[in-house]
Design a protein that fits this description.
Layout lengths: L8 E6 L6 H14 L4 E9 L8 H9 L3 E7 L5 H8 L6 H14 L2 E5 L15 H7 L3 E7 L5 H14 L4 E9 L5 H11 L5 E6 L7 H11 L1 H6 L13
Helix pairs in contact: 1-2, 1-8
The structure holds adenosine-5'-diphosphate and magnesium ion (MG).
């Protein structure tokens, strides 16, 4: 068996909404672009954003400079199916998302796909979820973004179980916002997550989205050493600036 390697589609899910999926997506894109790869990001369903406003992919573009793609956009700040129902519209099918990702994959080394909310949020009118999308992608792996605080171990283990139940490859866990002064709960949570078989891919420091984009791009590799290793980047990254 060879070394574990980076799949051509990296699916970013989270233990919940607002855990830092977008920021981790941006850090992953920045790291992979920095490794010389052709990288893009895709958000199948963006909710809570009006036409013309920047959504999650706008944030990824701002932080990384990479071009991205958005699928359906719905105005209501809620899960895609109820948001679409409220607007009286329909959602793209799973086959459509698979086509878009295949099209992007033909032109890029890696496509990073950001889910909406958590793993089992329904993305299509047929009730298919990000888990169904990940399971249908031939060469994909999932990054699970988790909070640092109390409650995160249960949420992380629930999502791991759902992934394993569907035989979806889990690349590892990332802590979305790691505080400058972690408390004992956060420190023991991090130790626990690091000891999981797939390990902790890294942690994005608190305040990362407010960094100047050039600093964000420079530091992303140091935040996600596990992902850097999967991408074949050996050795430690440049030391992170003091906070
Ligand atoms: N490391 C971090 N430091 C500070 N704020 C963060 C960090 N990660 C995420 N945030 C903020 O928390 C909110 C939710 O993060 P986001 O990445 O959009 O989560 P999700 O995509 O999971 O909904 C955003 O306002 C974002 O800027
Ligand atoms: Mg997001």
């Amino acid at each position: 068996m060879g070394e574990p390697s980076l799949p051509s589609v990296v699916v970013v899910t989270g233990t919940d909404t607002d855990v830092g999926k977008t920021v981790v997506t941006a850090a992953a894109v920045a790291l992979l672009v920095g490794a010389g790869l052709r990288v893009t990001a895709y958000k199948p369903t963006q909710t809570g954003v009006a036409p013309g406003e920047p959504g999650d992919m706008g944030e990824v573009e701002r932080l990384t400079g990479a071009a991205t793609r958005e699928g359906a956009r719905l105005r209501a700040p809620m899960a895609p199916r109820p948001a679409a129902a409220l607007e009286g519209g329909s959602l793209p099918t799973l086959a459509h998302h698979l086509d878009v990702i295949a099209h992007l994959s033909a032109r890029h080394d890696v496509v990073v796909v950001e889910g909406a909310g958590g793993l089992l949020v329904e993305l299509t009118d047929g009730g298919e979820t990000l888990a169904d999308l990940a399971a249908a992608l031939p060469d994909s792996g999932t990054v699970l973004v988790a909070r640092s605080a109390l409650g995160t171990l249960n949420h992380t283990m629930l999502t791991r179980e759902a992934l394993s139940h569907r035989a979806i490859r889990l690349l590892g866990v990332v802590i979305g916002a790691w505080p400058r002064e972690p408390d004992v709960i956060e420190t023991t949570n991090r130790d626990y997550l690091s000891a999981l078989p797939e390990g902790l891919l890294g942690a994005v420091p608190q305040g990362a989205p407010a960094l100047p984009p050039d600093v964000f791009r420079e530091e992303a590799r140091a935040w996600l050493p596990g992902l850097a290793a999967l991408a074949g980047l050996a050795g430690p990254a440049a030391p992170t600036r003091p906070a």
